[in-house]
Amino acid sequence: MKKRFLPIILSLIGFISLACMWDRDTISFEKENFPSTLEIITGNFIRHSPEFYQWRIKDRETKLKSNPKQWNYYDDLAVAYDKLGNHTKAIALMQKKDKLYPNQYETYANLGTFYIHNKEYKKGLKYIDKAIYINPDAHFGREIYQKYLVEYLLSKIKNGRFTLPLNPYAQNHYYQSGFYYYLKKRQKEKFNIHKARLGLMGMVKFGKHNSPILMEALGDLLAGENKNIPNNAPYLAYLAYKRAGMCVKNVAAQQLYNKKNPPKNQWFKLKYYMPQKIALQKVIGRLDKSFTQEIKEAQKLAFQIRNDEINWIATATDPEAKFDEKYLKKDNIAKYINGARQGLFMMENRRKNLNKELDTIANKDSVLKPETIRQTVPQKNATNNNSLSLITFIAIGCVALILVVRRFIRKS
């Protein structure tokens, strides 16, 4: 089995980008709304060219000389260096900024990401934790999933190396070693498939769009969940694995990615929404053609943006302003992701407020409080704890009903 996949030594990995960076573009893009999952997988969304980041380095270095107290220029400059592969320079800039303007969320978020890109994973996690402590809801909580994905990656390292795919098994029962099951076990009752999927999509959008690790993790999330996901999730998972295979040069890794598929029950769920007379394999073949076309569209968009930015720079036109004017407001991917995240956070806040209201109602009655119930029920094991939760819920409901009846009697 070991001969089937060649070891990929960490020091040689150049495509690992589990990013959650912060610069001018992060702010601008997140003010708009996020692409569909298919566009995220194919890379068919707006992003800057290497020539743009070369221009930004010169621009920010000049601006820092005339205005050294403008701390956000350090973020822009460091991210530009990191995008061009100079992670050491990016780290040095953030360390300098931290001495001048200590304890900023943006600094630690960037430092954590740059260390991860430089393959110093444990150092990266240290700064990601610092960033989360300062602002746990930044990027709508995306750092949390960056942290878990790096921990998942570290769990796959043996003797200083790992192989791709991180979870090479194609059989259904081996899916429990993938990122979906790792995350579900790690987060327990806090696990939320929608948040996790949006977090991964954001990392692709603002990080490296052709990272096989991000594509594999996204595929795991889509393949692992049988509920609360789009009906086309199995096909999207299949495409994410296929895209991961396109992002690696190692032939053995490519073959393993191409063999990975969602569980059979996922495919049957997809078939339920198809015309009954069309064979599933025939539908997949047609969809594969659409996927190939989507890849071509993504390449076309990237080529167009690159040409525009090269021309803007050559004619001394501000490429940031021109990019914003021509492309930013068309960034439907950013709009979708941010809109979905905001909706999830609103739902969470409503749930918390409802729980507070129920507690308030229960506390108004001196006879039956949740605390009293907890004291009367022995907490011997997990089963008793579940019973306690059920009794508490029923008691609160009864208290609420009593209060409503009392008010009704008084009015009558």
* H-E order: EHHHHHHHHEHHHHHHHHHHH
Overall geometric form: globular
Total DSSP helices = 19
How large is the share of residues in beta strands? under 5%
Q: Quote the average pLDDT.
A: 77
Biggest beta sheet attributes: 2 strands, antiparallel
Q: Report, as a whole number of angstroms, the end-to-end distance.
A: 78 Å
Instruction: Calculate Rg over CA atoms.
Output: 25 Å
**How much helix, percentage-wise, in residues?**
55-70%
Kindly report the spatial arrangement of strands forming the biggest sheet: 1-2
Total discrete domains: 2
List how many beta strands DSSP finds. 2
Structural class: mainly alpha
Q: Which blocks of ≥5 consecutive residues have pLDDT under 50?
A: 1-15, 26-34, 364-385
Descriptive notes:
The chain has helices at residues 24-31, 37-42, 50-66, 72-83, 87-100, 105-117, 121-134, 142-155, 179-187, 193-206, 212-224, 233-246, 251-259, 264-272, 280-314, 319-326, 332-364, 370-376, 382-411, and strands spanning 8-9, 161-162. By secondary structure, the chain is mainly alpha-helical. The chain has 2 domains: 2-334, no CATH class; 365-411. Strands 1-2 form a two-stranded antiparallel sheet. Helix 4 packs antiparallel against helix 5 and helix 12 (233-246) packs antiparallel against helix 13 (251-259). The protein is globular. The protein starts with 7 loop residues before the first strand and ends with a helix. Mean pLDDT is 77; it is low at 1-15, 26-34 and 364-385.
